[in-house]
């Protein structure tokens, strides 16, 4: 067996082991919590288990949504359709991509396979990037959760700043990555023919309905297991950080105007919360952190966190992922600082 095949088998075994570990903890956590062994464990490690399960359970419904959307795109959306509806001008396609992100209710857990599938189908890479960073924030579910988390106030600076920055920054990030990569192929796997075992009905010129259903399920299962192992690994690391980081130290550092933004952006990355729920966590820090840092938390986290970093590396080449991470971090931090200097001080005079 070649070394590359050995590494592939090793990754698959680790992924399967993590999936089995999650299923075991999920199914038997109540029984385990009553055993003497678990009761003798330090409280911190019990907390790791609780946070780990909560992150994964929160993400799985959106993962399932994402992989089924990805599978439907694979089966029903042709390359010709994508090319027909996309603007021919590369930069002109950025604005429609941001608008498209406001339509689909997908969080950062679910968006990665959808974008990878669209890019594989022929969507330009920079357009996929806009969709990747805009959709987890601009969708209606996130708007509603942020609205209710911050006092049901339509003019609250966190609500309006989060949505407007997500729209504008997604276009800026897409434009920068376009200049860097110029639509070069950045998916990890080379373009290849579909290996689905389902046989198409060539006599009728198109697959039968049942064959399409089988292909959709096949691709969804394949995507779910690919994403699942990265999700679980990211959730485990995030649970460790949440448990063992000293939050008092973070709050002390967060009192500074600039460091508070960096701390909350880093916190958003490590906590790896789904964008549909992160507003309530951000609101809980309102007494200790500045408004600008809360906006940084809510804009940066859905664009880039520990979970979707693993997923990005699963689908895209390392050079692209590293460039994406650096650009998103710099652009978001700079935008929050500018917002804090010129917009937030006069917010309530304008609204």
UniProtKB/TrEMBL annotation:
Membrane topology of this protein: Multi-pass membrane protein
InterPro entries named in the record: DUF318 (IPR005524), UPF0718 (IPR052923)
Keyword Zinc tagged: no
Any single GO CC term annotated in Swiss-Prot or TrEMBL for this entry: plasma membrane
Broad class of the protein's primary localization: membrane
Entry's transmembrane regions: 51-77, 89-116, 128-151, 163-181, 224-245, 257-273, 279-300, 320-343
Protein name: Permease
Organism of this sequence: Alteribacter keqinensis
Higher taxonomy: Bacteria, Bacillati, Bacillota, Bacilli, Bacillales
